[in-house]
Each structure stands twice: as structure tokens, then as C-alpha cells.
Amino acid sequence: MAVFSQMTHPSCKMFLNFKKSRTTMFLQMMFLICSVCNTYGVASTALPSCTSDEYRVGQFCCLGCPAGYRVGRDCTATTNSLCSKCPDGTFKEGLSGQKQCTACTKCDTGLKVKKKCTPTSDAECEILDGFFCSDSADKDTFSGCIFLSVLGALVYRRLQKLQTPKRRIWGKLNTREGSRNSQDVTDSAARISKDISNTRYGDIRKVETSGASIQTAQQDRLKITGVGASHELAKTDAGRMERYRPIINNVAKKHAVDPALIAAIISRASRAGNIIFNSNPPGWGDNNMSFGLMQINVDPEGGNHQIIGGWNSEEHLDQATGILVYFIQKIQYNRPRWTKEQQLKGGIASYFEGVEAVISYEPEDEPTEGNEYSNDVVARAQLYKSLGF
Predict the structure, then answer these.
(1) Is 173 in contact with 130 (CB distance < 8 Å)?
(2) Which residues fall within 8 angstroms of residue 255, CB to CB, at 6 or more apart?
(3) Of 88, 179, 170, the residue nearest 127 (C-alpha)
(4) What are the CA-CA distances from residue 335 to residues 179, 191, 278, 331, 363 (Å)?
(5) What is the spatial distance between Cα 294 and Cα 307, in angstroms, rounded to a whole number?
(6) Domains and CATH numbers, the chain
(7) Degrees to nearest 5, angle at CA 184 with 181 and 190
(8) What is the C-alpha to C-alpha distance for residues 217 and 93, in angstroms, rounded to an integer?
(9) What pLDDT, in 10s, does the model give residues 163-204?
């Protein structure tokens, strides 16, 4: 037994050698598999980092598109990224893998363009003359600004006990129809106190008027002038006016303005759309310087309004009526001793010619086309009032 314990039987020695050989082969095979995996990137899921000029698409690092261009198609193993120019009204800054360009900022309510939008940079806006921006508003984007008429600003400051806003810019009013810049005044009545926005601006039936001049009466080849001519002109437009009655009523309620007055301005300005329906494009008048049923002025040297809504839409009437309300309020502020009816008539004249043209009550129409704009509008409004507006 002692001899056996110190010797290895030949059969046992063969078994141990075989076992050692199998272990060595297994280890060699595993080493070979790992080497192959490392060589072809199978063993690791990590991908190389892309540079700042590239963006990742799967396992590829694609070169981004430059400013003013978006990625139209990603790169592949054999092709580069395809870049497409940003469409009009959009922009993209810097080199990136952005696939959509960003819409340009629109300078609408109470703002004007300071810097135009380009394919590589956004537009910049600034506050229009004569409007107010609260100190709490974002001075970069103007988000949250409160734009008020002069009268509205005084009421707002009194009610809110605010100090004079730091960003206050006074501007000279233009002297053409609808001469208040952009939709900035569309909601002026609603943005000041509830009492002011709900106040009636006088009874249109009590406003004194001499009616249409002979120049205006000749539009329909009438042989009469004055109030009678205004009534006949309004009657001619009455059928067409009915299609706009619902939106006239909506806007009138919002701005606390007599619907008959809105109808009268539509009649005077565009003959209820009849003289601008077939213009090219539709809705334009005054050599393409005035737009819509109430003919707001878009001339950069005149009203410089931005178009809001279609020419016969509620949005357009909302914008134009806001402009009218602004001028009525401005006359109320400038002429506090006038009666409401006198202030109303002065506001109508201002809508056409600007506040500077209204020096006294008697000659408020003197500079206007046909020398009788507000007289004609008032007479037409009185006719529409009798028709249920």
C-alpha cells in the first residue's frame, strides 16, 4: 500500500494528461473568440463621440448643416448629410443637425419691426410710439406687455397705483384713415378698467350731422346731398351689410361700440365690400394702401398697420374697431368739456384724419375727403340704427 501511494498508475497518468489538455484547449478557444470580438467591435457597445460640428444618426456621426440650412436627409455610410435652405419666414442659427427651421418672431400687438428676420437670425421687435409696456414685462420678447392708449394708461396707472412706466414712448399720430399702427389698439378698451371698456361713447342718434357732400353723393349719381344722400347710399349697401351683421354685433359688443356705427364705416369705406370685392387681390383699396371692409391703412408712411385676418373677417373688424375706440378715447382725453356725442363725432373724424385734424368741434371734417367724412358716417349710422343695427 505504501508503495502504491507513492506511484502513479499508468492509466491514472493518462487521465490526468487528457484533462489538462481539454482545459488548455478551452482557454485557447475563449481567448480566440474574445480577440475576434474586440477586433470587430462586438464585445463593446460604446460608440465613438461625435464632434461639435456633427450629430449622431445610429452608428454614424453626420456633419451638421450651416446657419440658414436644415438637415433634409441624414448621412449614410457612403453619403454626406443633405442640407436644405430654410423656407421664407423661418430661420436657423449656427451649425447643427436641426431638421426644422424655427418660425420667425412676428411683431404684432403694439410692436414694430426693429430688425427683420433673416434665414440665419430671428426678427427683433420694439414698442410702437404712443404705447406703454409695464415694468414687469419681458423686455427682450415683450411677452406680457400691456399696451394702452394715452387715456387707458392714465386710468391703468390710477387704478393700479403704478409709477410712470420706464418704457414709455410718445409718438405723433399719423393723419390718414385708420392711422394707428397695427392691431396694437384692437383691445385697448378691454385692457383698461372694466368701467372704461363698458362705457357707451354717446348716442349716435343724437349726434349732429350735415350728411354727405355732393362729391360723395355722386358715387351713386344722386341728385341730392346732405343727410338724405347719406341715407340713400346706406340703403344701397344695406343688403350686402346683412351678411356681416353677426360679426358686426360680436365686435360691437366686445368694444362697447354701436353696431350701426361699425356698419356705417363699412358702408363709407368699402360700400359693404362692393368696391374691393373684385380688386386684385380682393380686399384692397386706395392703390393697395388700405385693406378690408373698414379700410385700415397699411401704408408705411401712413397707418402702417399689419393685416390681421381676411378682408371681410371678424378679426379685421375687431382690429379696425379697436382703432376707432382708441381715437374716441383720445378725443375724450383731449376734449373733456365736449359732450359724449361731440367726442364721438370727433373720434370718427380722427379715425380718418388723425387727432391733430380735430382742432375744434365745428370744423372737424374740414381736412377730410369730401370735407364731410364724420358727417356722412354719422348720417349713415343713424339710417342703420333705424334698420335694427
Answers:
(1) yes
(2) 189, 190, 197, 318, 321, 322, 324, 325
(3) 170
(4) 19, 22, 41, 6, 14
(5) 12
(6) 59-103 (2.10.50.10), 111-168 (no CATH), 183-386 (1.10.530.10)
(7) 140
(8) 58
(9) 433 332 222 233 333 333 333 443 443 343 333 333 479 999
